[in-house]
């Protein structure tokens, strides 16, 4: 089917104008180009089942093949189809996982769809180096190698500052790439300063064949979802369009929690012999009511708890009725690449995002061991605006015995936040009991909220990066040398914070750092690859906690230094990576004597990672691994915390995912997923911890043809045994794991 025109109406004329300007600017920039190393066409796709011709079967007769075609543009997938072989590594470009001097995993849409993953966290927790810190439907947070990260620090197609800031849905995502470890050279500093790793979203693209897919889903607590996925290309194959529309409404993970989501995404791509251009646009409306929140524990009672967080009912609620978060997010991104010749390529990317947020939340503080707790509310109204761009050149130079791949890149991200918050509304905190809470009516207790959006703060990140990837002619050795010079500018503007009793003052903060990187890969043969790296990360300095005597004080940028060695094994049907790492960075600690919160000492995160994936036997697919992490404080003032384990970091984590095709019932697949976290400390003094826990999920899917229409039915139960457990955060806070939930869906491909 030919496709020559695309028309889109969008509610915000201002954003449309901005995106049009972005398109024009990028088009006039130096002609940009695709990395010359285009992946060769797959010689063989490792199919999940036996291929057979569909079309002459009676209605409802099962088939053995996956019925959904795989787009030719997707990178080669590994055996089993769940993991992509190729990852995007910033200035290093797209590379096969055996050629990468880092531990990286790329989860394909097959895994996302078959696990019915609704959020980015649902996907990345398949990696044993990732710990889930998501509180509720309003929160998307995780930990990689012991360092916290949030949705704000994700990339879209390799660019920071464009992906949705608060919404973590996956309906438009074809691949989620997880790079473990720091990486200032690769993509620069993350906007929110995460150091443990990088999450990159690769949007869905139009495949070779037309596609119209409709999915209807139902979850517990009357949650209904509808998704339409449409893909088309022009007759000449140059222009492709993919549209995803999504609607979801009903109950969420926790009691009384309710979600209402509407989203639309458009992905365009245009390819010629010498250029490749993509454009992505998305609009999201998401409202969550009565969300679950964390439980904070007053530090004065910790010693009375006997070292463990008190037990509560699995249906315990720490989110007050009447709380909500309403967001509207709109984003667009243009990326283009141009081959000047076979040895020189230019590229550029430009993206923008506008986020409106309106939030009323609560804090739940346990003040006494009998359960007496304090409830406070905060209303926050804000607008976030971000514009981000990147431009670069890649050149290939052949010297005697060494092939060089040189990259020069420059990037800039500018972010503004217009915000005003009533810290406690018009009412004072009130008290209840965590074991039998009695809630105040929010409307009568707090009264009206003040809605204002003055300019609160801005952040500008500028950087220049230079790298050289040197490969011997036989391909056995690869050396990476490079560095990134980055400038950080942060401005805070006068802004009265109602209820806080203080007025923020204007301040300007500017720092610059150079972050070097060195890495090496040695291929012993086609099956074994050894690697090592030294690389630095950069994070803008934290602010002193509001409870500290120096509240609001801004620290200088934190530099993280990583040493890593590892080995990768590719046995055609199964691949595995073993890595050893050490990351050192300054630590923010509250001095118990002076009550000053500052960069006090350092935290050293050392660990061993083992992860694997593949299809060792036809019809049996595996993903998973184990991580041992030792995150300890060193060189603290007076040695108060020396040797203590960093709060929120489990010593051991393990995940195992298994899929088994039932050959006696063609089209039927059963699956299970296990997650284990060891005991984890909640406070810096290591006097309070949560118990270890293990969670099992169980799933099934069935593929069949309804006439000429391929249909897939999926059913999943999460937390099968209704495990009641705590997860640890930091600074004396914990959150309750979700109880048993389920999801049922039907997908038809027309």
Structure description:
The chain has 750 residues and is mostly beta strands. The protein has one domain (13-620, 627-749): TonB-dependent receptor, beta-barrel domain (Maltoporin, Chain A, Beta Barrel). Helix content is 5%, strand content 54%. It contains 5 helices and 42 strands. The chain has a 22-stranded antiparallel beta barrel. The longest helix has 16 residues, at 13-28. It is globular.
Secondary structure topology:
Elements: H1 13-28, E1 61-62, E2 83-84, E3 86-88, E4 94-96, E5 103-108, H2 109-114, H3 120-124, E6 130-132, E7 141-144, E8 147-150, E9 155-156, E10 159-160, E11 173-180, H4 184-187, E12 197-203, E13 211-219, E14 223-233, E15 239-251, E16 258-271, E17 275-289, E18 295-297, E19 324-341, E20 344-366, E21 372-399, E22 402-422, E23 430-433, H5 442-446, E24 455-472, E25 477-492, E26 495-497, E27 502-504, E28 507-523, E29 528-539, E30 558-570, E31 574-590, E32 597-617, E33 620-634, E34 652-662, E35 668-677, E36 680-681, E37 689-690, E38 693-706, E39 709-718, E40 726-728, E41 733-736, E42 741-749
| Mean pLDDT value | 86
Could you say what the CATH architecture is?
Beta Barrel
Number of helices: 5
Poorly predicted segments: 1-74
Radius of gyration: 25 Å
CATH topology-level name:
Maltoporin, Chain A
Strand element count: 42
Task: Give the CA-based shape.
Answer: globular
């Amino acid at each position: 089917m030919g496709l020559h025109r695309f028309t889109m109406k969008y509610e915000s004329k201002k954003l449309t104008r901005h995106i049009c300007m972005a398109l024009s600017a990028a088009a006039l920039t130096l002609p940009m180009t695709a990395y010359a190393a285009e992946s060769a066409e797959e010689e063989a796709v490792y199919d999940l089942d036996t291929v057979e011709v569909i079309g002459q079967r009676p209605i409802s007769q099962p088939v053995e093949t996956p019925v959904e075609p795989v787009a030719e543009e997707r990178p080669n997938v590994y055996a089993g189809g769940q993991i992509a072989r190729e990852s995007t590594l910033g200035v290093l470009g797209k590379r096969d996982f055996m050629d990468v001097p880092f531990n990286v995993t790329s989860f394909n849409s097959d895994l996302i769809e078959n696990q019915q993953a609704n959020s980015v966290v649902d996907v990345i927790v398949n990696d044993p180096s990732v710990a889930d810190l998501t509180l509720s439907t309003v929160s998307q947070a995780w930990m990689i190698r012991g360092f916290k990260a949030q949705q704000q620090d994700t990339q879209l197609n390799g660019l920071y500052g464009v992906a949705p800031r608060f919404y973590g849905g996956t309906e438009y995502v074809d691949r989620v790439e997880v790079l473990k470890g720091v990486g200032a050279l690769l993509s620069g500093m993350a906007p929110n300063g995460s150091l443990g790793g990088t999450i990159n979203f690769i949007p869905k693209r139009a495949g070779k064949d037309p596609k119209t897919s409709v999915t209807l889903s139902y979850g517990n607590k009357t949650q209904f979802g509808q998704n339409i996925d449409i893909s088309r290309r022009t007759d000449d194959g140059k222009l492709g369009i993919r549209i995803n529309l999504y609607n979801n409404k009903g109950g969420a993970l926790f009691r009384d929690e309710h979600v209402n989501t509407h989203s639309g995404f458009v992905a365009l791509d245009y390819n010629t012999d010498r250029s490749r251009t993509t454009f992505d646009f998305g609009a999201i409306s998401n409202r969550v009511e009565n969300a679950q929140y964390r439980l904070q524990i007053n530090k004065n009672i910790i010693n009375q708890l006997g070292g463990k967080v008190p037990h509560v009912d699995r249906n315990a609620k720490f989110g007050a009725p009447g709380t909500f978060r309403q967001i509207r997010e709109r984003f667009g991104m243009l990326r283009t690449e141009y081959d000047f010749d076979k040895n020189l390529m230019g590229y550029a990317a430009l993206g923008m995002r506008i986020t409106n947020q309106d939030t009323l939340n609560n804090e739940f503080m346990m003040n006494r061991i009998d359960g007496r707790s304090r409830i406070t509310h905060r209303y926050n109204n804000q607008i976030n605006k971000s514009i981000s761009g990147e431009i670069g050149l890649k050149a290939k130079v052949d010297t005697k015995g060494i092939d060089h791949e040189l990259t020069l890149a420059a990037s800039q991200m500018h972010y503004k936040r217009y915000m005003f918050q009533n810290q406690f509304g018009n009412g004072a905190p009130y008290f209840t009991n965590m074991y039998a809470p009695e809630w105040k009516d929010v409307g009568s207790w707090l009264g009206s909220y003040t809605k204002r959006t003055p300019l609160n703060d801005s952040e500008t990140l500028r950087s220049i990066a230079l790298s050289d990837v040197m490969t011997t002619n036989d391909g056995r050795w690869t050396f990476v040398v490079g560095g990134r010079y980055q400038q950080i500018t942060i401005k805070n503007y006068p802004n009265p914070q109602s209820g806080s009793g203080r007025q923020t003052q204007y301040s300007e903060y500017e720092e610059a750092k150079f972050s070097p990187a060195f890495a090496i890969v040695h291929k012993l043969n086609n099956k074994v690859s050894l690697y090592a790296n030294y690389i630095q990360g950069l994070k803008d300095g934290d602010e002193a906690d509001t409870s500290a005597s120096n509240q609001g004080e801004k620290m200088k940028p934190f530099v993280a230094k990583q040493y890593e060695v590892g080995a990768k094994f590719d046995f055609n049907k199964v691949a595995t990576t073993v890595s050893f790492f050490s990351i050192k960075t300054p630590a923010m600690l509250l001095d118990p004597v002076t009550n000053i919160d500052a960069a006090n000492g350092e935290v050293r995160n050392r660990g061993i990672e083992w992860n694997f994936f593949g299809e060792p036997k036809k019809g049996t697919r595996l993903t998973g691994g184990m991580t041992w992490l030792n995150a300890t404080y060193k060189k603290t003032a007076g040695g108060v915390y020396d040797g203590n384990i960093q709060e929120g970091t489990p010593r051991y984590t393990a995940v195992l995912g298994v899929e088994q095709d039932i050959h006696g019932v063609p089209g039927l697949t059963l699956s299970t997923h296990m997650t284990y976290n060891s005991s984890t400390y909640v406070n810096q003094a290591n006097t309070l911890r949560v118990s270890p826990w293990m969670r099992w999920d169980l799933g099934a899917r069935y593929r069949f043809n309804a006439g000429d229409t391929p249909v897939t039915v999926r059913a999943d139960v999460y937390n099968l045994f209704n495990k009641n457990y705590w997860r640890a955060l930091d600074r004396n806070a914990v959150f309750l794991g979700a109880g048993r939930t389920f999801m049922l869906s039907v997908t038809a491909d027309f």
